[in-house]
Amino acid sequence: MRRVAIALVCAALCVRHMAIAAQQPDTTKRDTTKTDSTARRLAPVVVTGTRLTDVDERIPSQVESIDLQHISQGPDAAFQSLQQLPGVTLFDDQGTRLQPELEVRGFQLSPIVGTPQGVSVFLDGVRVNEPDAQEVNFDLLPMSAIDHAELVRGSQALFGRNSLGGALLFFTQRGGSVPSAKIELSAGSFGQQVGTISAGGAVHGIDGYVMGSASNEDGWRQATGARTRQLFATVGHRSPSGGSDTSDIALSVLYANDRIREAGSLPQDWIDFDPRLNYTPGDFFKPDLIHVALRGFRGAWGGTLRGTLYFRRNDIEQLNVNVPPPNTDGFIDNKSGGGTAEWTRPFLLGSRPTALTIGGEYARQNVRFRLVNVGGGEPASVATLAVVHEDDAAAYAQAVVDITPKLSVTGALRQDYVRIPFRDELDGSNNGTNTYDRLSPFIGLTLKVSDDLRGFVAYKSAFRAPAPVELACASPDAPCALPSALGADPTLAPVSTHDYEAGFDVDLPNNTSIDVDGFWTDVENDIVFASPNLTHVFFVNIPHSRRAGVEITAQTALPAGGRLFASYSYVASTYQSTVQISTADTNPVPARPGDQIPSSPRHRGRVGVGMTRIAGPVALDAQLDVRAYSSQFLHGDESNRHTPVPGYAISGFNLNAQYQRYTIQLEIDNLFNRKYETFGTIAENNLGGPPGQAQTPQGGTDQGELTNFFSPGLPRRIVLTIGAKF
Which residues neighbour 16 within 8 Å (Cβ) at sequence distance 6 or greater? Predict the structure, then answer.
């Protein structure tokens, strides 16, 4: 428990500084542990915060509601809202606005195949991390149908695989007792157009909701246009509440079809010449998704029985234009199905109110890889034809015991079993099967000193088995031109975490609140990808690494309907082993304990001011904020020897106006049109200087020279949305 003490001391010191500078409040983050005191004060023997529910205030974790109000709806709404939270950063490896990578407490959440994933994502209790590489496609989430969303920070045993840095929970809307409909139309910079229509209602206990959305945009860089289409529908039945036979069941269907063109990063001299250029025009991502889920609950055996059943099919085509050729055209068919069931029973343990939850889940995940080499003057050839039929099973239990009316203890265990057989249909000698299992514990204390002050301390752990793509591309002697050249490579060890966390939140007069959270996460066998050049990668285990830091948020009310908010997070993502990771650097130096993991800024902050006013029949809400991030090391610079990607700060503005059933929203990103980069890597420039320039400019790179590639940040973007409710 030594690290728990360290976290507590860190938290105490931080709040002391906050008290001295009392006017440093918080982001739009609203911690669910202190929302709406009447709605969240549950009966003594009732508990949520299980695998299939929202999170209860007695669960010793930092939980944040995600603000969707100040974000225009569209395929980017998920990550735009997430980057407003403390400790969350966004960077753009692919060079397209709709496929950013996020980092939560030093763990990545990304739509990019090949990025080791450290956050799990659920839609109405169904995991949406894809089977092939555990990636998450933000553009496929039905954000216009989301009712509310939460980020549960830190290692989470109950949520299973990938929940190293946290779990992201999305809950969709249902039809209400009063029929309603809504239409929204948006237009913005770079040819952006978004249209959304939704309707819902209930008749004789049967409720229904339907949403359709479409978007088009040209993209701000060359050949980065995007098209997205979504249709989401839910039908359900709720029994009258209040009795032991209370029940609810709902069937949801989601269809999505997108095509996103990508640009990637650029050499520095290309950015200086024109940041809108595309180094490899022609890259695109084209998914086709069907997601069907049945969920519900009912009273059973003196408690509540909850469950989900689902089927997902996501057929993806990903074309990568490589320099030098051949190009890779990948066809990945992801199919998965399974379910989760849990039973919660309140009872008295002696005289102490207790809630026990036991549950289990199973998923069958089938992946078929067909990867074709095209171009380069040669006929197309199949590089990989392989299948994986993965089995994931888990059992878990959680108990929440009220030791006193103010002190609760939570304990949980989860046992995971994962079996991943790889079958190469071109070369049977590559066949192989990997199995993994682990018991993950969780224990913590929550002290509710008063309605206005709550603190917690916890030890957590989590587990991640390697993804099929990682297992099939783990040999330094045969790196993959992702997503091609897969085979049965050396076995990777599973990732596990030991997470020590402590924090508190306090409500003060004048609608002022302060949250402080300290964490220390030791990671064993972290999986990272090594890049010997710009187009090839392989995956390796790092014996020991660490994520440690503190997150502080605060907010307060101002006169005349104003509000002030601020947040700061310090995240030290470091290697704790001496390792040599293959890079394009011709003079590599091993990373040593204490070296910073690339693409992870240590300091992140946000400050802003907002105001809500009623002007006659019009309700107005305006908000201005500034987000700032410190420098980060280049991917490929694990030893931290090269000049890092510079830190940057950008501003945003949001204005909402509502008149009766009509709304107008104005959103401006990068208000002052700052130039910045969000990602950098070391690679060989095989194309030389930028096109259209006869000679390499002073200080530029020659063809074949090793240089730094960067992803330029999005310039000023303006979006206007008009909506109406009926």
Answer: none
CATH (domain of 93): 2.40.170.20
Nearest CA to 549 out of 516, 514, 515, 520 is that of 520
Phi, psi of 20, deg, nearest 5: -65, -40
Residue 487 has a pLDDT of: 54
**CA distances for 57 relative to 41, 54, 519, 678, angstroms:** 8, 10, 19, 35
Question: Domains in the chain: how many in total?
Answer: 1
- How many CB atoms within 10 Å of residue 151? 24
Regarding beta strands 327-349 and 180-188, do their DSSP bridges make them parallel or antiparallel, or are they unpaired? unpaired
Report how far residue 35's alpha carbon sits from residue 25's, in angstroms, rounded to the nearest whole number: 17
8 A C-beta contact, residue 300 and residue 349: no
Give the pLDDT of residue 489.
56
- Assigned token pair, 516: 């402080």
The full DSSP string for 660-726 is TTEEEEEEEESTT----EEEEEEEEESS-SPTT-SSPPTT---TTEEEEEEEEPP--EEEEEEEEE-
Rounded Cα gap, residues 532 and 588, in angstroms: 11
Tokens representing 390 are: 């993965």
Could you tell me the end-to-end alpha-carbon distance of the chain, in angstroms, rounded to an integer? 56
Burial class (CB in 10 A: 0-12, 13-18, 19+), 703: exposed
pLDDT of residue 383: 85
Over the chain (726 residues), the average pLDDT of each successive run of 10 is 38 35 34 34 47 80 83 82 88 88 93 90 96 94 93 90 93 94 96 97 94 96 96 93 77 98 93 94 96 96 95 96 87 97 93 94 96 86 92 96 94 96 89 93 95 94 91 71 54 93 94 95 91 68 96 95 96 94 78 94 96 94 96 92 95 96 96 95 88 57 79 96 96
- Model pLDDT, residue 532: 63
Give the single-character DSSP code of 585. -
The whole-angstrom separation of Cα 321 and Cα 277 is 15
Q: How far is CA 534 from CA 113, 171, 684, 685, 705, in A?
A: 15, 39, 7, 9, 12
CA distance linking residue 259 with residue 113, whole number of Å = 16
**Continuous segment of H or E residues that includes residue 7:** helix 2-20
- Count Cβ atoms within 10 A of the Cβ of residue 363 and give its class: 0-12 exposed, 13-18 middle, 19 or more buried: buried
Give backbone dihedrals phi and psi of 143, rounded to 5 degrees, phi first: -65, -30
Does the CA dihedral 18-24-25-29 come out positive or negative?
negative
In this prediction, residue 701 carries a pLDDT of 56
Q: What is the CA radius of gyration of the chain?
A: 25
> By C-alpha distance, which of 689, 690, 576, 678 is closest to 635?
678
Closest-CA residue to 474 (of 460, 462, 484, 488): 488
Helix, coil or strand: residue 118: coil
Q: What is the DSSP string of 274-336?
A: -TT--SSTT-EEEEEEEEEEEEEEEEETTEEEEEEEEEEEEEEEEEE--SSSPEEEEEEEEEE
Longest dimension (CA), the chain: 84
Give the model's pLDDT for residue 429: 85
Write phi, then psi, for 8 (nearest 5 degrees). Answer: -65, -40
Q: Which pLDDT score is estimated for 38? A: 31
Q: Residue 331 in contact with residue 374, Cβ under 8 Å?
A: no
- Rounded Cα–Cα distance for residues 48 and 41 (Å): 11
| Contact indicator for 433, 459 with CB cutoff of 8 Å | no
DSSP class of residue 240?
P
Range of the domain at 505: 2-725
